[in-house]
Amino acid sequence: MTDPFNDQTGRASLNGARGLAAARIGIGLVQGGLLYFLWRSAAQSEGLSDALTWPATQPPLFAALALACALTPVMLQAGVGRLSVRTLALWGLIAAAALALLGWHDAAQQTREYFRPPYLRFPVIAFAAAALFIAHHLIVPAVASRRWIADFDDYFDTAWKAGVQLVLSLGFTGAFWLLLFLGAALFHVIGLRFLSDLISEEWFSIPVTCLVFATAVQLTDVRSGLIRGVRTVALMLLSWLLLVITVLVAGFLLALPFTGLDGLWKTGSATALVLSAAAALIILINTAYQDGREDNLPPVVLRVAVRVAAVLLTPLILIAIWGLSLRIGQHGLTPDRIIAAACALVGVVYAAGYGWAALSPFWRKTAWMKPLERTNVAAAVLTVGVILALFSPLLDPARLSVADQVARLKRGAVSAAQFDYGFLKWSAGRTGQRALAGLARSDNADIAARAKRVQTSTSRYDDERSAPPVRPRITAWPQGAVLPAGFDAPVPAGDPRFACTGAEDCVAVMRDMNGDGRNEVLLATRFQITLFAADAEGWRPEADYRADVCVGPKSSDHRELLQSPDIAPVAAPWPDLKLGETTASRQIRIDCRPPVAVNP
């Protein structure tokens, strides 16, 4: 059988530090030239120049080129000297094609209301970079060992060394620019602006940035022993943080039976919070485990912490899945929830594998946490596959979210009045707009009318009637008090009570504020208090209050301030101003003057 990694025939190699340096600097210069070309095209399309504007006039093409040109050269620089020229060129073409397809798909799905170069959303850039980093460091050790799956210590050595190189190279590039700005400031104070003018020119700044980064990669690669030393120190320091996060997560989980999960659900970001804690555990477990060699085991206290942390992953992931399932059941799919579900899927693999590694020694003899190695490789492959699926037509979050939300509307899980039509127009790209057009042709007159109104809107917030009314969460104070009838009825986005529909409850106090014998309502959010008065149409907001932040309260949370037993109206020291037929309302000036120092 032919070895798929054996490319000895016709192998071209780059030998010697000079050859490696020339290759990396050449890649950096080419990258700088391509990115400058794209910047010129984007600047011209924005009216900053009168030259040709291609390819910025074709957003999908521009996004594809931008993503490929920004990330592929970095991978090529990391692969120089570690892969043969033929293998590196083939891998570079595959990676560039995959990145270009991700960029093309992302730009093609966006609408033109907010189209700006590089026509890429941040999640696409971040996840594409992560997928490229992981895939590259799965391929390099495999090619070097001429096996589909390399030894784990090779994966560890390659990936963590490259991570340190990347951080140091970025830091070197940032330091270079700090020095340039410092030099420009020095020359500027003596009346010389040539350096300031030079570094403000993109034909200089973009290629030089790429060149300096490539130089940093070469310098850190030449001193590989130094990089390994830095990596060793960094891993040692990080590994001791595992004790901290393990104690915190264990305490959190032990407290849940007594506190319940309501507080976690009220944050509105329970899944993201718990998944972040799980990710921290996974990273710090690996900083302690490192390559897993018998001669490189951590101290006993860290080995115990690794086992405990590995077991704690399972309840964290289960809580994340529970919270996510509750949100999806209540409000359906959104792109963020689909991405969170994908992260939870990867988390399940880590939790299962790490839990098995931690507990398997109780019934079978095995090296310390040895199954962790296979888990890391499997999870890395899964992560790359999930990212490629999420940001391609296969599992496009916008498409899946739109299909689910429209299905909920059609089956009556959400009413026509509560359905978020604005999501389809402003947050779901072209797929959402097509679905909105379909709803505008609906046989249901109410749905069609609401969809048409959103179709003609020019801003996400210009038609508050299109936002679904939501019942606010308001706690009457003091305890036992009852809100006036209708005050906590569902409200649209334009009502101040809409701020009480988020993660935190508001506090309401009933007081007669104008001496007419009828109570008004003072409603406090974290940042302000709003006065509501009743009229024939219901409760109308009349005024806003903000506490003096210079003196007095220890807390700036207006909900706590409103619970004070001493609440009363205070006459204003200065009146409003009449200006002909209109009135200018007095605005309070807050001038926190420092205290006057008194000599003893």
Fold blueprint:
Layout: H1 16-45, H2 59-79, H3 85-109, H4 122-145, H5 152-189, H6 194-199, H7 202-222, H8 224-259, H9 262-266, H10 270-289, H11 300-331, H12 335-359, H13 371-390, H14 397-411, H15 421-426, H16 429-440, H17 445-455, E1 474-476, E2 506-511, E3 520-524, E4 529-535, E5 538-545, H18 558-562, E6 577-579, E7 582-584
Parallel strand pairs: 1-2
Antiparallel strand pairs: 2-3, 3-4, 4-5, 6-7
* Helix content estimate: 55-70%
- Report the radius of gyration as a whole number of Å: 30 Å
Largest pleated sheet: 5 strands, mixed
Number of strands: 7
| Global mean pLDDT | 87
**Spans with pLDDT under 50 lasting ≥5 residues?**
1-14, 48-52
What is the general shape?
Answer: globular
Cα(first) to Cα(last) distance is 91 Å
> Per DSSP, what share of the residues sits in E-state strands of 2 or more residues?
5-15%
